[in-house]
Amino acid sequence: MNTNLAHVDSVAQPLLELHDIRKRFGGTVALAGVTLSVAPGEVHGLIGENGAGKSTLIKVLCGIVKPDSGAITLAGEAYSPHMPRDAKARGLQVVHQEFNLLPFLSVAENIFIEHLPRNALGVVKRRDMNTRARAALDAIGLKDIDVRWPVERLGIAHRQLVEVARALMTESRVLILDEPTATLTSRETERLFAIIDDLRRRGVSIIFVSHHLDEVFKLCDRVTVLRNGETVTSRRIGETTQDELVRAMVGQQLQKEMTHSTASSARSETVLSLVNFRHAQSPHEDGISFDLHKGEILGIAGLVGSGRTELLRAIFAAEPPLSGTLMRDGKPAALRSPPRCDPRGNRVRHRRPQGRRADPVDADRRQRHDGLFDRCVARGPARSKGRKCPDRKARSRSEAEIWGAWQKRRDALGRQPAEGGSRQMARAEAGHPAVG
Fold it and tell me: Distance between CA 290 and CA 275 in Å, rounded?
């Protein structure tokens, strides 16, 4: 057990209790001593930086991963699930951050996929299934969704709530929500919080995993902080502050210093400028104006639907702008298509379509080839301006250099094969962009 806990707030009669849980994957220590307890009807926040061990702990609780040592009790009895089915049979449900819905099946079929109601001949009783699914959605406020619709027709927020409805179809005593608000709007987040409050009143214990401390303080009764696979502190919300939790997560005092200006030498070279730049979805006649300097990271923030993606697509020439000027290195740039945009040094790392998961079988292979494909195929021989696509040997050497750098970076961090943003960043890096 970790003896360096700053403070652990105990619960007299916990429903779920973990004591000194440890897990290693080869030479990588994923859990180095996690201890926490959750009371009946409690919303317990679980926070920590990326790599702190939250995901591994969830996998241990739901039976995907078996811990090397430690003890878990659920309702006073030993708890050691060998598979997710065992966890569900004991009343522990998980709503994972990655969706586990089947897009081509209906909402009702997804909700009952593990226990479809059947008659004596084994035929699915669809009317009964749809009626019960309708009641499940009504219970969480999804009255505008037809349970006969295929899931692929739903938006990301609705899919998240369908996952919650599926988890609540069984008699759940413990519900684990892994980043449940990551894809929700503020209105949908409030709806989810209302559902959680109702579950709390019904005596369901909830482990709420989130990176948003404001949500943790608004919703949770207690919070546990993990760092490097260990429990650092477990406190009642009313007895701690966000600053204390941040210090516990990072292991050091953070200095809140905002730099309002930078040295003139660092801002001397402007690589990209927008002047009254309007994209197709822009409602303002003045458009958007900003300067991007060499070596600078410029953040573009806004709510869903505010036009962030449309702006980047217009800069990348994937969509024609309505008006305004785009300048590269102080000169107006008339970019007509992404292939012509690429040689000038602009790169866009697109968001992965939300709610869709990458194919794990050939993800690494695609990542190795994507960057080379952009440089050799997408431009085409007519647009290469005399530059020939490298032959197979040269292409293999270039590919090995690009992918080798990413492999070394990944291995140094002890991480699994790159996913999502890492794959796309490797692809963008292959083009040696000036603006990314």
Answer: 7
